[in-house]
Write a structure and sequence with these properties.
By secondary structure, this protein is of the alpha+beta class. The protein has one domain. The chain contains two helices and two strands. The protein has a two-stranded antiparallel sheet with strand order 1-2. Strand 1 and strand 2 form a beta hairpin. The longest helix has 14 residues. It is globular and about 40 Å long. 14% of the residues are buried.
């Protein structure tokens, strides 16, 4: 049994770090909002918004105001 099979959050955390490392929109959130020790992770991104069962990336929904 691998670590990610024992801990589903570990699997999510590893995927989120991999995705964030390839994302041109990644911006770290303030450290107080971080949920994982991995600095570059979707889970620690400024554009991450939590839902009741996961999170959504809002980077493509950026609204520019004057």
């Amino acid at each position: 049994m691998t670590g990610s099979e024992r801990d589903p959050f570990l699997s999510l955390s590893l995927k989120a770090a991999e995705q964030a490392s390839r994302c041109g929109s990644f911006r770290p959130d303030v450290e107080e909002e971080w949920v994982t020790d991995e600095p570059v992770s979707c889970l620690n991104c400024y554009f991450r918004r939590w839902t009741s069962d996961s999170y959504h990336c809002m980077a493509s929904k950026i609204e520019i105001t004057s």
